[in-house]
Specification:
It is a single chain. The protein is α/β, with parallel strands linked by helices. It folds into two domains: 179 residues, 2-Layer Sandwich (Nucleotidyltransferase, domain 5); 129 residues, Nucleotidyltransferase, domain 5 (2-Layer Sandwich). The chain has eight helices and 13 strands. The protein has a five-stranded mixed sheet with strand order 6-10-9-8-13, sandwiched between helices. A four-stranded mixed sheet has the order 5-4-3-7. The chain is globular, with a radius of gyration of 19 Å. It starts with a strand and ends in a 6-residue tail after the last helix. 43% of the residues are buried. Keywords: Signal.
Length: 328
């Protein structure tokens, strides 16, 4: 059965002609700088953490040089982005003799995640939602589209929100109550923080939400503060980066917010004690209340933070695959 889907993006309500096969589950992949993860979500609310697959050196190099969508919210890192040179042949399509090893490395990772999901389901996977820690630029999204086409997986015409933002909305239910898209004193505007931390990078978003519309206020993607760095260097770099990101108050659409409603942590190093200590210290200096400085502790269990992004993507994939525009 083929459906035309209208769906709610993380930035608002948009009609999108995305045609997907109806299926009884959702499949989500997240590609981080070092590894990929796959999750499956079922209609009864259960889910499966299917696989975590380490990337090869070419994959890791490609993810480290991926273009981040840079807009008004992007905070430039202290270290410059490395420039990679490619031959003319790398830009040609395969039928004209092109061969791009970085595209191939993404394809191989996605193929591995697809095979793992199909093995778990004992069924073929034809559609999936793919997310990454950072806002996806058009060039990198084109790479994803090329890679998914090569392994016969369809994805929406627009990129998914970053993994932390998806997890906040679709896993931790940070969003509107009974707002119905009109200002409601019972559901005021809020700002929340998502932090994805791995051995190689810190990706954090300060997000503004009002009546189900989510906007990035600030975006930070640092590749020199991963958990494998020395403790002394990490503390200083994390304090500086998170201090800039969480500086309060913030103003968005005429609304001034003086504190955060939630802090969501995900990624393989999200339980790092130094990260927790720095966050509490930074937020306390911003005169956040005790409850707000420790709110991220509520999100430690039972969900495995490594799979939070892919699970959110799987839930979104199931929604897009099974809801018609008449039901939205």
């Amino acid at each position: 059965m083929i459906l035309q889907i209208w769906y709610l993006l993380a930035t608002g309500l948009f009609p999108v002609a995305f045609v997907a096969a109806k299926q009884d589950y959702g499949v989500g992949f997240e590609l981080t700088l070092d590894y990929g993860v796959a999750s499956i979500h079922f209609p009864n609310g259960s889910y499966a953490e299917v696989a975590k697959i380490e990337g090869n050196p070419t994959y890791k190099q490609r993810m480290r040089t991926a273009d981040v969508q840079k807009d008004h919210a992007y905070i430039a890192p202290d270290t410059p982005t490395a420039i990679s040179w490619q031959s003319f042949r790398d830009y040609l399509p395969p039928w004209l003799g092109g061969h791009n090893p970085t595209h191939d490395s993404i394809s191989r990772m996605l193929k591995s995640l697809k095979i793992a999901s199909e093995s778990y389901l004992e069924d073929s996977v034809s559609t999936a939602e793919i997310t990454v820690p950072f806002p996806i630029s058009k060039p990198f999204f084109d790479t994803l589209r090329y890679a998914t086409k090569s392994i016969s997986i369809s994805i929406p015409a627009n990129p998914a929100a970053p993994a932390g933002k998806l997890a906040a909305i679709h896993v931790y239910d940070i969003g509107p109550g009974n707002c119905d898209y009109f200002p409601d004193p019972q559901d005021p505007a809020q700002a929340f923080l998502t932090v994805e931390y791995t051995r190689s990078a810190l990706t954090a978003l300060l997000v503004y939400e009002e009546c189900g519309v989510y906007d990035n206020i600030r975006v930070l993607h640092e590749t020199d503060v991963g958990s494998r760095e020395s403790t002394h260097d990490r503390r200083a770099k994390l304090t500086t980066a998170l201090g800039v990101l969480t500086k309060m108050p913030v103003k968005c659409d005429g609304v001034v917010l003086k504190s955060l409603s939630n802090v969501v942590l995900l990624g393989e190093s999200s339980q790092d004690q130094l990260l927790h200590d720095v966050l509490k210290d930074v937020l306390s200096k911003q005169e956040q209340s005790v409850n707000e400085t420790t709110v991220f502790d509520q999100h430690e269990a039972p969900l495995n933070p490594v799979f939070a992004g892919s699970l959110a993507a799987a839930r979104l994939n199931m929604f897009r695959s099974n809801v018609t525009h008449d039901e939205v």
